[in-house]
């Protein structure tokens, strides 16, 4: 299916099987997305963006890049909408299908990996595996078919990216949770929303709070490991469980911590104190295997920094200064971890999605200028 989004941008629906994942009985393909191009042109340079589970086929920056002459493939793996089933090496193979399609079918010479939001660590893992195989399969599984046949990207861009699934979840975990099975129980001395603790929060409180967040992640991991051993011994493969109160990063409450233009007391779902008591949040629903594979600080490979050290291609880190979930230190950590000798860092006005008037155009301009400095427009 093809169509036109604007007089200057053309879009094409793309779907494909993946090694080890065939077309479903109902007709759907495991990999799918939309390819945006300048109307009437066949670009030789293109970007690909993928997330762990969010649908990126209609990514907000796609048309802006295509209008400026760069192809954009908003690509989804078999796990779009199915984060609880996520398997990293299989997802990387699916991303590889998109990269290969760009080169072999769309006629693209240079593919740039765009790691946006949670996709920052995912695309970093892809580049690391494509450059120097390092990804181990999930527990009790064989390596994904095609995992060692990935085509590396020519460049990497991190856009409003988190440090990784276990990293961002741990930074947002409510350290005051006493019982994972009862979200109402709270340790008052670690309660972010107890006025006696702040805001503003003391350095001593933040140190205790951060340590307690890490300890909570490790407690859940230890329980998941023990519980998985118990149920597999009984002949079961996995089970679901919930993780309450995952909107509790102190920076979401106290704007004096890592000052920026973000709104005080806000997270992606609105007022932090309200969102933290809702049943919707990052990592709120999981399985034992999914927790260990994706969210555990101890076991997960869904982390950016461990893969950034293998990225040597030109790299750009863009950080929105009004983001209420990605903070300056996150961008600093990603930038510092990159092994590339050609790396740049840029802070731009905007929230996590650059929704303010003109913000997305500004992001596209920065990326296009950076790309043009490394891949002259004559090659586009």
Largest sheet: 9 strands, mixed
Shape: globular
Count structural domains. Answer: 2
Number of strands: 15
Which bin fits the share of residues in helices?
25-40%
Secondary structure class reads alpha/beta
**Distance between the ends:** 25 Å
Please write the CATH class name of the largest domain: Alpha Beta
CATH superfamily of the largest domain: Alpha/Beta hydrolase fold, catalytic domain
According to CATH, the fold-level topology of the largest domain is Rossmann fold
CATH architecture of the largest domain: 3-Layer(aba) Sandwich
What's the gist of this structure?
The protein is an alpha/beta fold and 380 residues long. The protein has two domains: 241 residues, Rossmann fold; 129 residues, no CATH class. Helices cover 31% and strands 19% of the residues.
Structure description:
Residues 1-24 are annotated as: Disordered. It comes from Rhodococcus globerulus. Keywords: Hydrolase. The protein has helices at 62-67, 88-104, 119-131, 165-172, 203-233, 272-275, 288-295, 305-308, 328-337, 359-374, and strands at residues 2-6, 9-16, 31-38, 45-49, 71-76, 110-116, 155-159, 177-179, 182-186, 240-242, 266-267, 270-271, 285-287, 315-320, 343-348. It is of the alpha/beta class and 380 residues long. Helix 4 crosses helix 5 (203-233) and helix 5 (203-233) crosses helix 7. The relative contact order is 0.13.
């Amino acid at each position: 299916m093809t169509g036109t989004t604007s007089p200057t941008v053309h879009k094409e629906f793309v779907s494909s099987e993946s090694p080890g994942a065939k077309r479903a009985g109902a007709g759907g393909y495991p990999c799918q997305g939309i390819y945006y191009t300048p109307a009437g042109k066949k670009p030789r340079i293109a970007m690909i963006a993928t997330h762990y589970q969010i649908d990126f086929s209609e990514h907000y920056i796609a048309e802006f890049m295509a209008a400026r002459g760069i192809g954009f493939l908003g690509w989804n793996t078999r796990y779009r909408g199915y984060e609880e089933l996520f398997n990293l090496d299989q997802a990387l193979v699916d991303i590889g299908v998109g990269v290969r399609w760009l080169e072999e079918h769309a006629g693209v010479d240079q593919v740039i990996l765009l790691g946006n939001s949670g996709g920052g660590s995912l695309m970093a893992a892809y580049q690391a595996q494509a450059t120097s195989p390092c990804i181990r399969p999930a527990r009790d599984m064989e390596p994904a078919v095609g995992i060692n046949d990935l085509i590396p990207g020519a460049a990497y861009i991190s856009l409003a990216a988190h440090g990784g699934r276990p990293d961002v979840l741990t930074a947002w975990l409510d350290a005051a949770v006493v019982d994972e099975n009862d979200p109402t129980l709270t340790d008052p001395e670690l309660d972010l929303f107890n006025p006696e603790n702040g805001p503003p929060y003391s350095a001593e409180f933040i140190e205790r709070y951060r340590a307690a967040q890490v300890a909570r992640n490790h407690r859940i991991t230890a329980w998941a490991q023990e519980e998985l051993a118990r149920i597999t011994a009984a002949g079961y493969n996995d089970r679901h469980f919930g993780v309450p109160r995952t909107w509790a990063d102190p920076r979401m409450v106290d704007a004096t911590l890592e000052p920026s233009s973000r709104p005080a007391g806000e997270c992606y779902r609105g007022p932090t104190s309200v969102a933290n008591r809702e049943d919707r949040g990052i990592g709120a629903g999981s399985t034992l295997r999914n927790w260990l594979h994706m969210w555990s600080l101890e076991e997960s490979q869904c982390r950016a920094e461990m893969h950034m050290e293998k990225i040597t291609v030109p790299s750009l880190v863009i950080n929105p200064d009004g983001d209420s979930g990605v903070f300056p230190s996150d961008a600093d950590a990603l930038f510092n971890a990159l092994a590339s000798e050609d790396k740049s860092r840029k802070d731009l006005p905007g929230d996590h999605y650059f929704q303010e008037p003109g913000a997305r155009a500004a992001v596209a301009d920065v990326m296009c200028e950076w790309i043009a400095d490394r891949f002259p427009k004559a090659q586009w």
